[in-house]
Amino acid sequence: MSSSTALDRGRAAFAEHRWLTAFEAFEAADGDGGLEAADLERFSTSALLLGRDPVGIDIATRAHESFLDGDDPAGAARCAAWIGIFLTSKGDLARGGGWLARATRVAAGGRGAESAGGLARIPVGLGELFSGDAAGAARTFAEAFAIGERFHDRDVMALAHLGLGQAEIMLGRTDAGLALLDDVMIAVTAGEISPVASGIVYCEVIGSCHLAFDVRRAQEWTVALDHWCGERPEMVMFTGKCQAHRAELYCLHGAWIDALESARVAVELAERGDWNATFSGWYLQGEVHRLRGEVEPAEAAYLRAAETGWPPQPGLALLRLAQGNVRSARSLIGPVAEQVDPATRQQLLPAIVEIELAAGDLAAARRAADELAAATPTDAKPVRRAVTARSTGAVQLAEGDARGALAALRTAWTSWQEVDAPFEAARCRVLTALAWRSLGDEASASMELDAARAEFLELGATPDVLQVDALTRTGRPARFGALTPRELEVVRLVAEGRTNRAIADLLYLSEKTVDRHLSNVFAKLGVSSRAAATAYAYEHTLI
Q1: CB of 260 within 8 A of CB of 287?
Q2: Among 34, 51, 272, 328, which residue's CB has the most CB atoms within a 10 Å radius?
Q3: Does the pLDDT at position 97 exceed 50?
Q4: ∠183-210-155 over CA atoms, to 5°?
Q5: Are residues 46 and 160 in the same domain?
Q6: Segments forming the whole domain that contains residue 285
Q7: Do 200 and 249 lie in a common domain?
Q8: Which tens digit of pLDDT belongs to each residue from 484-509?
Q9: pTM of the model
């Protein structure tokens, strides 16, 4: 293939978002005689979207130099700014900062390069945002937007409005922030901005919607992101994050097996190049394992998430609480809650209420619940309304106000039902049962516990099934109660027809450990075969 033919093929494939074909064609054309600056920029973008970071950065560097040689300061500044954005987002602050400084320097020379100065302001605003200076970040993003608007640079305008929306949410002005994010998404869905900027916007908008407790918006944009990624099957960048967003929604809606699979795929894609999905992929695996009572794999997943530098909270603290280590739970979540921005702190407060109640510090639990309630508007989104009402109801119950708790818990249950969150709704029913019991209405309490237990069983929420059984004292025979949560999980997987090897892989255990668990199960249940253990599991509604 001649260099001109390869070049034409690469340009056509790039325009059609066929990144692998574009990369290979540009690579062939480059080897035959070199590429011009604009084609090097396309070549670099293709490499980065395929998850080939080092190659992509090297080619972008060549593009920057080629633009300079060709007396095109606008192209040179743009390449420098994008290299800086990419490197700083990966945590390479020294190199990234150097490239951003170079972009700013070139942009200051004018001649059409000025808009890159706005692009270089984006990482500055993000640094302010995540260091807790949301007001300063808002000013920086507004400056960047003004530059982008002056020079009609849609990428700069979109990324600046994205950052401004995030700052508004972190400042507690949720509706204004979400309105800005919706505005950005219109530009993305209309195809007005570049592929890399589009992917950044998709992923960050969805994360911000979750931060604002707006599950419906998050779900709408996750579907859109899934479709966008699906139209670009060769792309690696952003696809892992897409899987992580899917996992988060699956987890909320009780599809835990699907959530676990999507989180695992997110990690696989992170290893292939979409590094931005590493934390969420591991953290969400930890969440599913924790909810199912799988302590060892949950802890392993949370620790892998922590390796990214982000604290795996509130998940790890709640795991410690489930293990009965209240002191550790408090020490893990307390410092993080003091250091994060206001919006992230709101995400931690429900867990703080739960942990402080377990610690017996009713005053601390009340303070956390009141803080959550004070920040919740009267027209709050269903999830925000639900977490606030549940926290308030739990504290009221501990304070002895059972009737007040019933009203709050009813609001919480209704709100969780509204967004189809079966696990959280069932947890509300357990608290409601305790409120009825304290009022002397055992019939109502039993009805709530039975409904909650059925939901927990269907979900595979073993710890919560055991909690309900402990409250009713009639949920299962004594022999079944002798099994540990891990042994219960092994029985369930045996009943699904899985081999010991498959169980070991699924639970991150050795086959020898699975054999030991199964031997213990046989001894405790008084059975001698996998078939008998399976029959027992069905007979006692373990499955």
Answers
A1: no
A2: 51
A3: yes
A4: 35
A5: yes
A6: 238-294
A7: no
A8: 777 888 888 888 778 888 888 777 67
A9: 0.82
